[in-house]
Amino acid sequence: MSSPKGRGGDWTPPLPANPPQGRGTSDEGRSRLEGGPEARSQQSEPLLEVRDLTVHHGQLRALDRVSLRVFPGEVYAIIGANGAGKSTLLRTIAGLHRPTDGAILYDGKDMTKIRPERRATGGIVMVPEGRRLFGSLTVEENLKVGATYARKGPWTIERVYEIFAWMKDRRTQRTAQLSGGEQQAVAIGRALVANPRVLLLDELSLGLAPVIVQRIYAMLPQILSTGLTVLLVEQDVSQALRVASHIQCLLEGHTTLEGRPSEVTAEQVEAAYFGLPGGNGGAGSPPVSRGGLGGIVPPERTEALWHGSTPSSRAS
Amino acid sequence: MAWVNAIIQGILTGGLYALFACGLSLMFGVMKVVNLAHGDLAVIGAYVALGVITVTHIPALWSFVIVVPIMAVLGYALQRTLIQAALDRGVLITLLVTFGLSVVIESGLLQFINADSHSLGVGESIITGSFSIGSQIQIPYLLLLIFAVAVVVLLGLQYFLSLSRYGRMIRAVADDQEAAQLSGIDYRHVFGIAAAIAFGTVALAGIAYGMYSQFSPTTGTDTILLFAFAAVVIGGLGSLWGTLLGGIVLGVAQQIGAQINQADQVLAGYIVFLLVLALRPQGLTARRAQS
Fold first, then answer.
1. Minimal-distance CA residue of chain A relative to B291
2. I need a surface site. Which of A126, A229, B222, B272 has the fewest CB within 10 A?
């Protein structure tokens, strides 16, 4: 976050020409989610709410008064380029960063000062960026660690073996021996067995081949069918638009766009993603002006993002 | 035959050194703390045993029943306060803090007890005796017992770490504290448990040393800590069974050195220690304890 790492071919190609008109497996997830516009209605209380969250990494303001409300059953996607503050937001919600200001409410209760392990046992469980499995433990031991302080709920290690069929045969292998995609599956399984109410997914696609990413996201409907709420961070915008019921775009620590995927146009997302002055922010968010960045990020940073914007192949 | 005897004595002494070393290795493996007060804590264990024996008149052999829990509680408390506070400020700070702790313990013992040497008298003749194989090989029961204790402790640790729930958590926390937190594990508590176990083995080491030899306030740093370090380095950092192997190699080297010249006993051990550091710095067993 502190360095402009998002140059060159490192980041995701922004958008498909026509966004989310779902295809294949993703259709399932979307239609199910679109079945619930009432989910965001006035009567229902948000399960997770973030109010004016400001987070600093040293001098750098990684997040600047970001707010969001996640309602039960939603798939809420945070999109944005590298360094936009997405992961910081998720890690702060999980308790791994202390916010400078603002509040995190879970089920109506203030969680801002609660330790990360208490949030996890309370039902906010994160799949961290880069998997972060316990490398010297076997697949099954990783899942058992995840289940140590599990809440009551539908997910068990057996259930995880059902949705990831290969895992049972390889449960005695150390996770260090697995491929990236397999490790990601174990990381998801380790989070699921804790029976979270809110599942935080940080950059599932990072470092994985597109076909693997597709396969992992295809599991999402099965996971959602057990009644969890998902808040995910994704650089791969097209993937996020396909699965999300609500999206929020961050740029340099600010919210630049918020809305349902069906309500926003590709142009709006693109503008919000790159911070184009001409962009037309959706759902009441004002378009980003360069002056509004507070001088945190050197100007060439945004320039570099622009020049690097040719859809480059993802490292897999 | 004298050489065979030296090697057997060396192997058995290795059990004592493994007892010295396994707590040091565990604390390094789990929380990356190099506990420079390790030897002094073993000496504290020996003094506590001396006190317990004096007050309750239980046999020295059974003093561990009381001393090990006392030291384990002390370990948990020290880890959750002083050592955790140091860890929060950086791994290097733990070196300073444990070094300070070592100085404080040593000075405290000199100040409040005295500089005299003590030993834990073992009343029973069967323990103080020895049996002989042939005419030259003499095996003291006490050394054999200590070796057996070391093997039992290592086996117990191995089973605990690989099979129990807390053992699994300890390994998970050693791998990735943050990921463990995300699974709902309070790593500071797990560190405390690991420290309690390490201090329990330290207590055993102190009692064993007290029965085997004489201890004084300075024994902790000038003997126990150094031998523990040597055993850990020779065996391989963070490897449980490596500490036994390291202890045995150290013990055998010392006994062979003594066979050549009585004055060279300790020197021979350190020469092997230096050779391992120079030629195989990862230790003789490069793999980790949890294999």
1. A136
2. B222
Kindly list the structural domains of chain A, giving each domain's residue range(s) and its CATH number in brackets, ordered by start: 26-289 (3.40.50.300)
CA of B280: how far to CAs of A10, B24, B233, B276, in Å? Answer: 40, 20, 9, 5
Give the H or E element holding residue B88. Answer: helix B84-89
Question: Cα(A30)–Cα(A75) distance, rounded to whole angstroms?
Answer: 9
Q: Do A95 and B169 touch (CB under 8 A)?
A: no
Chain B contact for A126, CB < 8 A? yes
Count of structural domains, chain B: 1
Q: Do B182 and A134 touch (CB under 8 A)?
A: no
Place of tokens 């209760």: A109
Rounded distance, CA A266 to CA A27, Å? 19
What residues make up the domain containing B184? 2-279
Q: Which residues pair with A257 in a beta bridge?
A: A249
Flag if A145 and B288 touch (Cβ within 8 Å): no
Decide: residue B7, CB within 10 A, 0-12 exposed, 13-18 middle, 19+ buried.
middle
Q: In this complex, do B182 and A94 lie within 8 Å of one another by their Cβ atoms?
A: yes
Say what the pTM is. 0.83
* Per-residue model confidence as pLDDT tens digits over A142-165: 999 999 999 999 999 999 999 999
A137 → closest Cβ in B172, B184, B186: B172
